[in-house]
Write a structure and sequence with these properties.
By secondary structure, the chain is an alpha+beta fold. The protein is built from eight helices and four strands. The protein has a four-stranded antiparallel β-sheet with strand order 2-1-3-4.
């Protein structure tokens, strides 16, 4: 189990486990700017820079990591896939927009083979993207213990071209805020499993 030293009133205090740090926080002695150092390490950092200590400052604490009411590992996995799917949805929307524009530009002319092929392909890509987006959204929001009503609303919005992109961005922002609320930093492509393990989270058995 990880332990820390905290620099309180000009001197190091510890070693402290998560409960000890929680007690300091409750007493008003631990703040975001308090220097902390993991036992065995040589570098002191601000408390807000350490994911586990930051979770205590955010009011989540160490004990909640073992008794969280949502599956953070499943959420991280589906969110990463969701972000990859977002790029596919962008491509699908571009294709759906391009086909009518091309058709309009060639009105009165013999339809080209490219256009005849592109039209059904763009539709298939769009349908596949929608199916994948909805599936990942449902799995991710269920892992976060989101209400059924919210999941249904999100799924319906994902059916509409262009609106689905905005919906996905809003959902992704909500997921990122949930991660940050427990002291986990989110990268460009989401949160990796090893990041959660390093932050002290234990995968469900």
């Amino acid at each position: 189990m990880t332990s820390w030293y905290a620099h309180i009133d000009g001197k190091p205090v510890g070693p402290l486990d998560l409960q000890g740090l929680s007690a300091l926080s409750a007493a008003g002695q631990l703040s975001a700017s308090t220097p902390v150092c993991v036992v065995g390490a040589s570098q002191w950092v601000r408390a807000e820079s350490d994911a586990q200590v930051a979770s205590i400052l955010a009011g989540t604490g160490g004990a909640s990591r073992a008794s969280m009411d949502w599956d953070i590992f499943a959420t991280a996995k589906y969110h990463r896939l969701f972000l990859f799917s977002l790029f596919g949805t962008v491509v699908a929307n571009v294709l759906l927009t391009a086909v009518p524009l091309i058709a309009e530009g060639t009105r009165g002319q013999e339809p080209s083979v490219a256009l005849l092929v592109l039209a059904p392909v763009s539709l298939l890509v769009a349908l596949a993207a929608i199916a994948i987006d909805i599936t990942l959204t449902v799995l991710m929001l269920r892992a976060m213990q989101t209400s059924v009503a919210m999941i249904v609303v999100a799924s319906i919005l994902l059916l509409a071209p262009c609106i689905n992109l905005l919906t996905m961005l809003v959902i992704s922002q909500a997921v990122q805020r949930r991660f940050k609320s427990v002291g986990v930093s989110v990268g460009f492509m989401g949160v990796r499993r090893d990041t959660l393990l390093a932050a002290g989270f234990s995968p469900p058995k």
